[in-house]
Amino acid sequence: MATSNGIFVIENNDLKHHIKQGKSNKDLNNPFVRDLRRVGSNEIWVFTDGGGINVYNLTSKNFKYIRQNARIEILEQQVKKLTESISKIT
To answer: Residues 10-52: pLDDT tens digits?
Structure first.
């Protein structure tokens, strides 16, 4: 579940895990999560308000962070909706 305080992983109505902002690659780089999208079988893209896109690898359980670059333009690092197909970006 995406929230303004990170991601809550809920299974069978029980809170299993809380992923929040931190300084390691196992943490979000911004706590305000706008949306989550599964990409392929191994990634979850986390769209934040201020931290760009945090890409979570389900195998390594690590994040990588996408910010402004030549391929993806993120206005002030705020991502509210992804308007193009994710497969075209990756």
So the answer is: 889 888 888 999 999 999 999 999 989 898 899 999 998 888 8
Distance between CA 28 and CA 52 in Å, rounded? 10
Asked if 20 and 5 touch (Cβ cutoff 8 Å), the reply is yes
3-state secondary structure of 60: coil
Contact between 37 and 86 (Cβ < 8 Å):
yes
pTM above 0.85, yes or no: no
Spatial strand order in the sheet of 14-19: 2-3, 6-11, 14-19
Q: Where are the domains of the chain?
A: 2-89
Rama region for 67: left / alpha / beta (φ>0; ψ in -120 to 50; rest) = beta
